[in-house]
Amino acid sequence: MTTNLPERVVVATDGTSAALRGVRYATFEAKRLGVGLEIVHVVPGYLPTGPLPMVPDGALQAFGCSVLERSLAVARNTAGDVEIMSRLVSGARVASIVEAGRSGSLLVLGSEPHTLAERVWTGATVAGVSARAGVPVVVVPEGWRERDTASMSRVLVGFKSPQHAPELLASAFALANTRGADLAVLHAWKLPSVYDDVVTNRVAEAQWREEQHAVIESLIVDLRRCYPEVAVTIDVLHESPAHALVRASRNVDRLVITRPAHGGYFHHLGAVARAVLREAHCPVEVVPPSTGEEDERSLAPRARWRSPTLTPK
Q1: pTM here?
Q2: pLDDT at position 258, please?
Q3: Total domains in the fold of the chain
Q4: SS3 285
């Protein structure tokens, strides 16, 4: 496994208030981790043909540079002692941001999906990057303020199933440990109404909760030993996962989830992840699942956040 990758936080910006909020958050994260910050802006690689005159390429480059300058000023004012660099790239927005993120250990995006148009534009970028990035992606919502970074007291991890749980839980434990925060593990499920009634009529809910609690405990037993100072609570709910996670996000400092594994040209987020990214009240971290050799490069930067005695299986 390659381990000599640069340690930095990468943040994508387009100069909007949402993006500048992401820049501030990324700057705080870089300072907390003791790494550098890279600010990236994507200039369109092509323009559609039509009756309108084409915009000169130089004008696009000049505007892109002005976006970077505004973002650099925000980062310097937030934490001037962080080593900051900027990069202007050209191409498709999502693919370019994903590629830029490969140079760091964390990729940050600001999100502000209010109107339908903003949901289509900003939401598509956030979902597309979160579905494809090879490093953890943190999406910063509108409600985040700088004071929220002063002390992180609680991390929430959304647990779905044992599949990809090792990397998800290891990332959540490591984050809680580095921030001196408590960790809450939340597992919720609910089938469509008709089928949900059939299942709950045949399975005692108390028994189901106990069984799921035991499954989660078995998965975190080594992590508890590696991070003995992290206080952990487990909550198992018979409720819509998206509703449960969004509601719980009001009382935590970061929500950590994972995404479905994919291959080839198909990249997507599950319905729960999309809802959480759209509605959560705290920053959401999307941890990429491990799928083999292709992901070794993306997993390497996170190795330093884990205990060297822990080898998730």
Answers
A1: 0.82
A2: 92
A3: 2
A4: strand
